[in-house]
Write a structure and sequence with these properties.
14 helices, Methionine aminotransferase, 7-stranded mixed beta sheet, PyrdxlP-dep_Trfase_small, Aspartate Aminotransferase, domain 2, pyridoxal phosphate binding, 13 strands, transferase, about 375 residues
């Protein structure tokens, strides 16, 4: 008997497979196609010949833990203890899965804000807890009245994703004030903040939970070197949490992966001495602006993109098809793959919106735009 009877193949896998079968340009799955920084690949090349291939400590490579603490201090002015408040993980997905499995008990309720990334629900169900899906407003701002009415004494956690995938929205000061007031009423509820796109924001920076004193003692903050350094295949991320939560999370982590890829940890640790992580947003802002310019004469209506490397577009002026069928036809007839936003909702809410990934080289973006502007 299946533990996840309603879970099917991920929409990302479906669309990427279709893209490959039809030789389409894949703007669906969120991965860059441009070269990694040569300084990073040179580090890896050198390390491959050094004695760095055995287990690191369970929490992570100690120099990397120290550099993450320094990074959090420089980025958010928060002091954290490398030995007890950071855990290196095999990607952000493993960080999320491990945290939920460690902290949830049967019948706990976890609030998820739709449209939501698809890795949140499965570990909740496997913990025999209950996902409580609450839709954002149609402009993708939080509906705090609906969120508040979903909270109860059974609420163990609320998950936020900021900057937000798939919409590219970021939460503002008012959102955090309302969240803090809500959590004050429910002192036993925890917060999981998925901030994997924290260094990919544009006109205004996102507000991190690292900067919220009222939240940090009950919050697990998730980050991703894979996203920040364009090495998604490395599957290397980390989480920051107070000691009492990390202690429980490590109990699961040690039996799930024990420790993370050693050479990647050491490479990232060395690379952090060379790179200015705050320059990443400039790279992606140029790509966002270029992609939007390329599509300005198309029939797509582009939604605001405040962060992430995703552009949401409305095709309401083009077709009345549901978004899944439209995306499939986009692949088979026009050779471009995108993701239908309805698949991020529990109820399949269809607003005639699709998501493009613009983390691609200019040649790819130009050819994709050429195909999209003839629709």
């Amino acid at each position: 008997m299946s533990k996840l009877p309603n879970v099917t193949t991920s929409i990302f896998t479906v669309m990427s497979k279709m893209a490959a079968e039809h030789n389409a340009i894949n703007l669906s799955q969120g991965f860059p196609n441009f070269p990694v920084d040569e300084r990073l690949t040179e580090i890896v090349s050198r390390l491959a010949h050094e004695d760095v291939h055995q287990y690191t400590p369970m929490s992570g490579y100690p120099p990397l833990l120290t550099k993450i603490a320094t990074l959090v201090k420089s980025s958010y002015n928060r002091n954290i203890l490398p030995e007890t408040q950071i855990l290196i993980t095999a990607g952000a997905t493993q960080a999320i899965f491990t945290s939920l499995l460690a902290l949830l008990k049967p019948n706990d309720e976890v609030i998820i804000l739709d449209p939501s990334y698809d890795c949140y629900e499965a570990p909740i169900l496997l913990s025999q807890a209950k996902p409580m899906r609450v839709s954002l407003n149609d402009d993708y701002t939080p509906n705090w009245n609906a969120i508040a009415s979903t909270f109860s004494e059974k609420t163990k956690m609320i998950i936020i994703n900021n900057p937000h995938n798939p919409t590219g929205k970021i939460l503002n000061e008012s959102d955090f004030e309302k969240l803090e007031l809500l959590l004050e009423k429910y002192p036993n509820a925890l917060l999981l903040s998925d901030e994997v796109y924290e260094y990919i924001t544009f006109e205004q920076k996102h507000i991190s939970t690292h900067t919220r004193p009222k939240l940090i003692d009950r919050c697990i903050t998730i980050s991703s070197f894979g996203k920040s350094f364009h090495v998604t295949g490395w599957k290397i991320g980390y989480l920051v949490a107070p000691d009492y939560l990390i202690k429980e999370i490590k109990k699961v982590h040690q039996f799930l992966v024990f420790s993370v890829n050693s050479i990647c940890q050491i490479a990232v640790s060395e690379y952090l001495d060379l790179v200015n992580i705050n320059e990443i947003n400039s790279l992606y802002q140029k790509k966002r602006d270029y992609f939007r310019t390329l599509l300005k004469n198309s029939r797509f209506k582009l939604m605001p993109c405040e962060g992430t490397y995703f552009q949401v577009a409305s095709y309401a002026n083009i077709s009345k098809e549901n978004d899944v069928d439209f995306c499939k036809r986009l692949i088979t007839e026009y050779g471009v793959a995108a993701i239908p936003i309805s698949t991020f909702y529990e109820n399949g809410k269809d607003l005639k919106l699709i998501r493009f990934c613009f983390a691609k080289d200019n040649q790819t973006l130009e050819e994709a735009a050429r195909r999209l502007t003839v629709i």
